[in-house]
């Protein structure tokens, strides 16, 4: 099959167009990946903040439990003192 100069120009143009479309698709995916990475970074920051808040709440709960344990011992001493009727 004999290719004319016009066919060669058309084939070259088609090849360039296909390559250009391929490269533009890569740029589009790069933008999408950048957006996804940005959202993942935001989620990571939120998760770390939530973990810190949970740790702080856990420490506060432990301190509150220690104070309750101390108060429970004092309450039992007062209830067992002579001349007092137990609650309940």
How would you sum up this structure, described in words?
The protein is an all-alpha fold and 88 residues long. It has one domain (1-79). The protein contains one helix and no strands. It has one helix at 5-79. The longest helix is centred in the middle third of the chain and has 75 residues, at 5-79. The radius of gyration is 37 Å and the shape is rod-shaped. The mean pLDDT is 84.
Blueprint of the fold:
Elements (H helix, E strand, L loop, with lengths): L4 H75 L9
How many strands, what sense, and barrel or not for the largest sheet? none
Nearest-integer average pLDDT: 84
Q: Percent of residues in beta strands?
A: under 5%
Based on DSSP secondary structure assignment, what is the total number of beta strands?
Answer: 0
Order of helices and strands: H
**Share of helix among residues?**
over 70%
DSSP helical segment count: 1
Low-confidence stretches: none
Number of separate domains: 1
Gyration radius, rounded: 37 Å
| Class derived from helix and strand content | mainly alpha
How far apart the termini lie comes to 107 Å
Q: Label the overall shape.
A: rod-shaped
Features:
single chain, 88 residues, mainly alpha, 1 helix, 85% helix, rod-shaped
């Amino acid at each position: 099959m004999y290719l004319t100069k016009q066919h060669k120009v058309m084939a070259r143009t088609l090849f360039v167009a296909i390559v250009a479309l391929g490269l533009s698709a890569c740029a589009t995916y790069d933008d999408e990946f950048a957006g996804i990475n940005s959202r993942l970074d935001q989620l990571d920051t939120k998760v770390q903040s939530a973990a810190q808040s949970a740790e702080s709440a856990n420490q506060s709960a432990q301190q509150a439990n220690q104070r309750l344990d101390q108060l429970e011992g004092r309450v039992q001493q007062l209830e067992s003192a002579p001349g007092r009727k137990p609650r309940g």
